[in-house]
Amino acid sequence: MDFYNYSLIEYNVKNNIMNTENNKTPQSPSSNPNPNRNRNNQNRSRSNTPRTGGAGGQRQGGGNNNQNRRGPGGNGRPNTNGGPKKRGGGNRRNNRRRSMTNPALTHRMAEKDHKAPIIPEVTDENTVRVIPMSGVEQIGRNMTIVETKDDIIIFDIGFQFVSPEAKAPGINYILPNTQYLEERKHKIRALVITHGHLDHIGGIPFVMERIGNPPIYTQYLTSLMVLKRQEEFPHLDPVTMNVIKEGDSFTVGSTKLETFPVTHSIPDAMGVSVKTKHGDVVITGDIKLTHEDGEVIPEERKDWEGVGKNNNLLLVCDSTNADRSGWSAPEGLVYTSLEEIISGATGRLIIGTFASQFDRLISIINTCEKYGKKVVMEGRSIKTNIEIALTAELFKVQPGTFINAGDMGDYPSDKIVILSTGAQGEEFAALMRMATDKHKFVQLTERDTLVLSSSVIPGNEIAVQKLKDNIYRKNVRVINYRSAAVHSSGHGNAGELIWVQQTVKPKFLLPVHGHHYHLKSHMYASVENGFPKENIVVPDNGTIIDITNGTDLKVQKVKAPSDIIMVDGFTVGARQEVVLRDRQSLSEDGMFVIIATVNTKTGKLRKSPDIISRGFVYLRENQQLLSEARVLIKRTVEKRTEGMNPIDLDMVKDELADTVSGFLMQKTSKSPMVIPVLIGI
Q1: Residue range 131-172, pLDDT digits in tens
Q2: What is the pTM of this model?
Q3: Which of 21, 66, 392, 481 gets the most CB atoms within 10 Å of its CB?
Q4: What local confidence, expressed as pLDDT, does residue 112 receive?
């Protein structure tokens, strides 16, 4: 699709919206008095109101297509009743993934273990249950549920990328386990999406069918990102999208929810308070704080203090950077640093960053326009997200700012800025192709400057190091977050998390979003600052927390099923362990194929068996091993078939595989996959 032709996105949104007029709480427009803070303060106006569509393509609601908008002087948003504030940038890795465009997904449903302990149901109206289904033993695949007697509300459905170092060859993504929800889909009232990063929305196409396609509630930009991703799965039923604005209240089933704005590295990030009989369950989503030297800006302080005025039962809080003391670096420092680099560049400038860092991308583009630079976008995800940003009217671009990579030769090198994906070292991303001389238009030279405007995501260390080594071989000047303020995390440090906790004043605390040591670090910091340790639950995936009467907290001995669900090509399922073991065996020790013809009357081999080896040993240099293997194969087959009538070749193959495997292990200390092919004649 042509970059400038983003009408397709608008069309899909307009034909896929539900009016939530009856559930809205009006909010008064307000202007942003601080133009420099990281809360998406660009002035905007919109001429179109998106409409999202429900399953079956039917519109629901009152049919009001023209929601209140604000003119050029405000922070207007489509399908809203006020001027939402936005915060962000983007912080999401872009990794290679297989195209899932046309074939339908095959779902291998998890087999229910009838021997598993029975999970008690929520039958008491005084009990609220919270389960972090995933995202608390890893970075990624975030999903949390809040359950009452009558309702289940799901928060986020993300996936986890599989790093090249993980022993999961061929697996595209890892998803949260949905068995608990599948068994209770009649109670599911809504899926609430806190923001548009893939670790929070990436699992939606794979999971929604399993859990009954519940309606989705989220803000405008996130809705665009979800719908854009759904375009890759045209065979799926349309999602029912409810676009809300920050500060909205709405009711699903018998449960009321209130949203509030939060700062993250992407616009339209929000937290949610779930109203229960004995207090609120506060879901922060991913957060940091907009601050100046540790002093939270007034607008953000007001938002959090508003949440803190409620009777808050449980705080479910981001823990990604809980192991870092103090406060995170403000995003404004990054903008200043990048402007200095862009304005001072004497040669071609390449900036590698996360494609979902919307505000950072917009800031870079605006700075390039300020200094007369031309922008080249390299990477599908960056192009897609800029399209979405233009559709959402997050910014406007001047004519001629964007040029194609093939036209760079028409301009002086110091007027070129390349925005590129691949800062995490992805094998086929634009930066790696540049670094390995595989890019069609960009050949790195010592006159170039590369800015890595990102940190290294855990698990990507080896890939990023490989990228850096290749780049340094080109004698390119490299600037990264360790040498300059070119990146700021979208997650708050421990100081910010404690500030949020003390402002919200919850009775109980549930750290989420991170590895176990992140959650424990969050707990330690909280206890050091006076929070009762007995009121903190450090969960595993599937941990069931029940709070009764607003006072009695119980962690159930049983857990919700938490075995991972894997996306393998076009197959989604839980029972992949055997397949993975075979792939690991093939990747580590290769295969050993035996082809033999067997007389089905006598059980004798008609001739010496053929042997094919791939990834195991070089047969020409191992003739002795080959000869001994042939003797063993002949002896095993003929001994096993002796007296067998009729001859069962399948049974013979099983024994032959075991026997040859043991022989090869004894001789070589390797365990190749042995594949016997017996042909009866």
Answers
A1: 999 999 988 899 999 999 999 999 999 998 775 555 555 566
A2: 0.75
A3: 392
A4: 52
Given 491, 513, 518, 522, the catalytic residue: 491
Q: Can you say whether the dihedral through the CA atoms of 61, 64, 66, 68 is positive or negative? A: negative
Where is 395: in which H helix or E strand? none
Helix axis angle for 298-308 and 494-504, nearest 10°, is: 50
> Lowest-confidence range among 66-75, 552-561, 626-635?
66-75
Q: Average pLDDT in the 214-243 region?
A: 94
| Token pair of 508 as six digits | 């109980």
Residue burial 129-143, b: 16+ Cβ < 10 Å; e: rest = bbbbbbbbbbbbbbb
Res. 71: pLDDT tops 70? no
Q: How confident is the model at residue 31 (pLDDT cuts 50, 70, 90)?
A: very low
Would residue 405 be called left, alpha or beta, if left means φ above 0 and alpha means ψ between -120 and 50 degrees? alpha
Gap between the Cα atoms of 380 and 430, Å rounded: 9
Q: Cα separation of 426 and 441, whole Å?
A: 19
pLDDT at 617: 77
| pLDDT (tens digit per residue) in 409-447 | 999 999 999 999 988 888 888 999 999 999 999 999 999
Domains and CATH numbers, the chain: 18-52+59-94+127-327+491-567 (3.60.15.10), 335-480 (3.40.50.10710), 590-680 (3.10.20.580)
Q: Under a CB-based contact definition with an 8 Å cutoff, are residues 506 and 130 in contact? A: no
For residue 409, which amino acid is it? G
**Which ranges constitute the DSSP H helices of 595-677?**
623-641, 649-668
Neighbours of 620 (CB within 10 A): 7
Q: How far is 434 from 428, CA to CA, in rounded Å? A: 10
- The per-residue pLDDT for range 310-365, each reduced to its tens digit, is 999 999 999 999 999 999 998 889 999 999 999 999 999 999 999 989 999 999 99
**H/E segment holding residue 586:** helix 577-589
Residues paired with 249 in a beta bridge: 258
Rounded Cα gap, residues 314 and 408, in angstroms:
54
| Alpha carbons 282 and 505: distance in angstroms, whole number | 11
Is 237 designated active site? no
Residue among 156, 303, 318, 568 flagged as catalytic: 318
The Cα–Cα gap between 95 and 425 comes to 9
The neighbouring-strand residues paired with 613 are: 592
The partner residues of 450 in beta bridges, in order of sequence, read 350, 478
652: closest CA among 579, 610, 611, 596? 596
Known catalytic membership, residue 114: no
| Strand residue runs (E) in 454-518 | 477-480, 508-512
Kindly report whether the peptide bond that precedes residue 646 is cis, defined as omega within 30 degrees of 0: yes
Interatomic CA distance for residues 249 and 241, integer angstroms: 16
Q: What beta strand segments (E) does 463-503 contain? A: 477-480
